[in-house]
Amino acid sequence: MDTPLHTIAVVGLGTMGTGIAEVLARAGREVIGIDISAAAARQAVVALEASTARAVERERITEEERRNTLARFRTFSDLQAAADADLVIEVVSESYEAKQQVFRALDGIVRPTTIVATGTNALSVTRLAADSSHPERMLGLHFFNPAPAMKLVEVVSSVLTAPAAVEAVTSLARELGKEPVAVGDRPGFVADGLLFGYLNQAAAMYEAKYASREDIDAAMKLGCGLPMGPLALLDLIGIDTARTVLDAMYSASRDRLHAPAPILKQLSEAGLTGRKAGRGFYTYAAPGAAIPVPDALTPQPAAEGAGGREVRSVGVAGSGTMASGIAEVFAKAGYDVVLAARSLEKAETAKSRITKSLSRSVDKGRMTAEARDEALGRITPAGSLDAFADVDLAVEAVAEDLEIKQQLFATLDKICKEGAVLATTTSSLPVVACARATSRPQDVIGMHFFNPAPAMKLVEVVRTVLTADDVHATVRAVTAKIKKHPVDCGDRAGFIVNALLFPYLNNAIKMVEEHYATLDDIDAAMKLGGGYPMGPFELLDVVGLDVSLAIEKVLHREFRDPGLAPAPLLEHLVAAGCLGRKTGRGFREYARR
């Protein structure tokens, strides 16, 4: 298997196969494109001509390089064309029968030294290899769509794969400018193994009518910095494809988190498979269109201020980073703010933190010195909650401890005027438990800001079964006025973001526990293959392992799903005091400052 991988056959010229062929041809490889459909082969040539023409226009390649690239790509309708290939990459439909038919035919066509790779993202490479007369030369080579743009390539070994074959395709991936990640053979591998569990949970959340499709997608984009929301991504991937991947994952893991949400089956069987069909979770102008169009489920914009209470002054309880950040946000939006802490000194320290933050904005040209001074002039520090007597909205941002919050709400109930809205910023505790500590639970609601509050655009608006309609309308209107994006959700553990984020993080930890992949490979896979701004272990160390463990426990306790039980490795690290960046060591070690 020391043969240089110069001539490469790509079997299956759909979107992925065509993308892989383009990557190979532009990198100087002779590419044999094979598809039984003459139309698919013609379309592949047209696509390559168009993409290379765009590259010339953008001055990324010369016209001569374009001509050479096109000359290196030839198409055929018969597998016999692969006879002289050094490597064959199969990218036909995601079905054992279809793929095994290709591999059985290739056994009688290609040389014994030819490496044969499957592009599957859901099926067992071992099972496919076992049916071949040369299982040692078979492996998985999982590119991501669109192949020319996406850097990640998962190199999948089975127990039968020869190390030399792995080494050869890994070297090839690097020569193509890709980032190869070595993984073992299990459904979904690393990136899709983590991604599809998260997508499945989002589909189930929508199916349960917990939140609208728009709010679920907005929450994950704004709360986690993801390029797409999960339901829009399912439409892009194809709901039928997602269901196939999840079926394979569930067959291997028997984890209920991987059992396809029933709505995926319903949409698939109705032919509503996403963008390619013109309708999935969203409706599109035409099959293949990228932009959703309004349909019967599209929320109608509410009239500004309709049904809400007037809010002119805001009280913020707390002196930490979140409290000062929220106070800054309200002051910049023109509200008079009372910032109350356990002592006047703590409140003044919090205001000093706001002063520094606003001054940085002035230095960066984001606001004027005059605007900074006006905002600071609206903030009044106080050493007691008694200062909240006349506020229209009271927002607590104290310790994430239910008993502490309940005591605070009982105090607010006695101090705040009739009609004042009382809000908690809890990220994991039941809002209704705070409401029941008052004599006016109808006035209590959740406003879950994200850290840092001045920068993060998302606010989860958490309505309990007791929250009044006008309180909900008030908070949505106020959230819009402070230039944040409100998403509605019910009062259950994790709300939207944490309920989808932390099971994904927990599953990443389980991968490491099982020695399936390394921290670095998993982080690289999710950044390069999923478009995540941070890998799961980078994010865990930033959030804090103790905070992560607490949220995992809350989710497990509420939903009682064995798949949500915190990974033992997370519990062990927390017990050892390895809490992430704040202690200098978590999943990784950090230099002490």
Task: Describe it.
45% of the residues lie in helices and 14% in strands. The strands form 3 sheets. It has an 8-stranded mixed sheet, with helices on both faces. An 8-stranded mixed sheet has the order 13-12-11-14-15-16-17-18, with helices on both faces. A two-stranded antiparallel sheet has the order 9-10. The mean pLDDT is 94. Helix 16 (431-435) links the parallel strand 15 (421-424) and strand 16. It contains 22 helices and 18 strands. It is α/β, with parallel strands linked by helices and 593 residues long. The two termini are 50 Å apart.
Overall outline: elongated
Strand-residue fraction?
Answer: 5-15%
Structural class of the secondary elements? Answer: alpha/beta
The tally of strands reads 18
Percent range for helical residues? 40-55%
Q: How confident is the prediction overall: mean pLDDT?
A: 94
Number of helices: 22
- Could you name the ranges where pLDDT drops below 50 across 5 or more consecutive residues? none
| Largest sheet properties | 8 strands, mixed
Protein name: 3-hydroxybutyryl-CoA dehydrogenase
Organism: Streptomyces achmelvichensis
